[in-house]
Amino acid sequence: MIGSKRIAVVLPAYNAEKTLEATVRELPDLVDTCILVDDHSADRTIEVAKQLGLQCFVHDRNYGYGRNQQTCYREALASGAEVIIMLHPDYQYTPLLVTAMASMVAYDVYDVVLGSRIIGGQALEGGMPLWKYVSNRFLTACENFFLGVKLSEYHTGYRAFSRKVLATLPLLENSDDFVFDNQMLAQCVHFGFRIGEVSCPTRYFAEASSINFRRSLKYGVGVLVTTAQFVLHRSGIARFRIFSPQGRKLESYYVNEKVAAGTPR
Known about the structure:
Layout: E1 7-13, H1 20-25, E2 33-38, H2 45-51, E3 55-58, H3 65-78, E4 83-87, H4 98-106, E5 112-116, H5 130-147, E6 158-162, H6 163-168, H7 180-190, E7 195-199, H8 213-235
């Protein structure tokens, strides 16, 4: 807790058995609730999570990374959290930054804080493949130009949000796949939320989750499509529900009746 504001960390997990404990052990004591949503893993992710005392929710099948985040945020809101940090449980991002990121939101400096792999200039030293780095820089440059903001990257898996952000954005209109991340930041820009960044060192190693080239290409196309939708919506040429105030929101709708996330396991 920071002041009177409850802090929740959400962990969208898929086959995170080998790295989950290392991630959780480094979380600071100020975290009030740690929620793990398992997207139908094939390993012992849930067993490890229970041993660590996490609040666990399980999808009855593999719905995708975006759907996993929807459940994460819905359960975090239901827990009464005022600040919610999304952290990948693959130990690629250091949990030690949770305090700094949560504080920036709790003290109303920003509505959204991103853990950037680019600011410190150590992404390649940390093991980021060159092709990922180049595509990251290209897509970020395009987005900055068309969205009218200046971020060092849009593609980090380490993010802090205020409760208001998660309650306002029409997140249920977003993709179930990896482009969910990018759609969410485009929505934050569209709805006028303040976005800050902190430098975050990262680690690339065998157990750290990383999408392959084919899925990365699909993600890149999705990013460009989202950017085009943002421009068309803002200009009034077309309308898209992901940018509509009337879009489906987490506190008004369930993700899917078949998602077994309503009861902790």
